[in-house]
Amino acid sequence: MALDRSCVVLLLASALLSACGSEDPTPAHSQRITLDRPGAPPQTFAIETETDAMAWQVRPDGRSLAWGPPGGAPQLTLECMLSDEAEPQISIIRHVAAPPGAQAFFAVLGNGMAARMKVEAALSDSEWRWEGSYPASAAQLDVFTGPRDITATLPGGGMLEIAGSDLPRQFVQWCRNGGVDEPAEEAGVGTDDTNSPPADPPAA
């Protein structure tokens, strides 16, 4: 009986070895992957920081001036609000997500001055953003009226480097004038006789 059991064990072992040897090492449903094959480069999110790719642009409504890429979403907007019952106001809008109820100081430096403008979260077009309104005559707005470059920093919202331009000065002055353009400078001297010295009286 012991011999018979040994034979049975040997026969089973031979059958298992035969089955393992006949198994296809590469099943039909398997897929080979070539590791050295170059793949597509990973997509990256880049933020444009070149100031020459940004510009001040008059918005279609004609009452706001925006800084940002031409044809793209603005990063900073100056909006003039005119009313017959109140003095002109200028709203400063920083297009960065703002937590509801939050407040901050928007620091704008340049043209020989530093302005700290209070802004708060405002909901507009289903988007929370930073916004603050000032009388158009406010001295803080003079920071936009010079010809030099300025920087505008919002805590947690990054810093904008804005190239010098005459457009913000013209816009602020236009709003301060109640939506009236600046008078053009006269090219020559007027010929109004009322300002001329009187002529010598005729000789007797």
What does this structure look like?
By secondary structure, this protein is of the alpha+beta class. It has a domain at 51-176: Immunoglobulin-like (Sandwich), CATH 2.60.40. 15% of the residues lie in helices and 29% in strands. It contains two helices and nine strands, in the order αβββββββββα. The protein has helices at residues 2-22, 167-176; strands spanning 55-58, 64-68, 76-81, 89-94, 103-110, 113-124, 127-135, 150-154, 158-162. The protein has a nine-stranded antiparallel β-sheet, covered by helices on one side. Strand 3 and strand 4 (89-94) form a beta hairpin. The chain is globular. The termini are far apart. Residues 5-13, 15-51 and 186-204 have low confidence and may be disordered.
List the helices and strands and how they pair.
Elements lengths: L1 H21 L32 E4 L5 E5 L7 E6 L7 E6 L8 E8 L2 E12 L2 E9 L14 E5 L3 E5 L4 H10 L28
Antiparallel strand pairs: 1-2, 2-3, 3-4, 4-7, 5-6, 5-8, 6-7, 8-9
